[in-house]
Write a structure and sequence with these properties.
Layout: H1 5-16, H2 22-29, H3 33-45, E1 65-73, H4 78-90, E2 94-99, E3 106-112, H5 115-124, E4 132-139
Antiparallel strand pairs: 1-3, 1-4, 2-3
Length: 149
């Protein structure tokens, strides 16, 4: 699907406020409400818009620590990767798991209630996986820009 400047503007606004009414969205992009809705529906059907989400306040959800962890595997095989990915799917602390290029195989975003909960995850989950060779943790101390939805 070709994304023209009007559709790009629609997407930019929806990234900022996914709950905006079609009437307000149409007004902001300079379209009639019906033309705007047709574009949004077309973007959804084409898979450009995959869904809408609530953005939760981690502190209100009991999250006191956010950490990024790089993970190096001891084996660079498909079964080792699949086993690691299955383990990450089962771990509720892992909010994102990315297979990346570079010196390590994975980058995780982990959320935990506190340092003790993070340590338990680090020791009892990551520390028990036979495919894990190296771990490096980066604890988030602030997020001046975060556009994840």
């Amino acid at each position: 699907m070709r994304i023209d400047p009007i559709s790009e503007h629609i997407l930019h606004i929806l990234l900022q406020d996914g709950r905006i009414s079609n009437l307000d969205l149409a007004e902001r992009v300079g379209l009639s409400p019906s033309a705007c809705l047709r574009r949004v529906v077309a973007l959804e059907k084409a898979g450009v818009i995959r869904g809408y989400r609530a953005i939760l306040d981690p502190r209100q959800m009991g999250v006191g620590i956010v950490a990024y962890i790089t993970v190096g595997l001891s084996q660079h095989t498909k079964p080792a990767q699949e086993a690691f990915e299955r383990a990450m799917e089962r771990a509720p602390e892992v909010r994102e798991c990315h297979n990346v290029t570079g010196a390590v195989e994975y980058l995780l975003r982990v959320e935990a209630a506190d340092l003790a909960a993070y340590k338990a995850f680090h020791t009892e989950v990551l520390g028990t996986l036979p495919q894990v060779q190296s771990l490096t943790t980066y604890v988030v101390i602030g997020s001046p820009k975060d556009e994840r939805a």
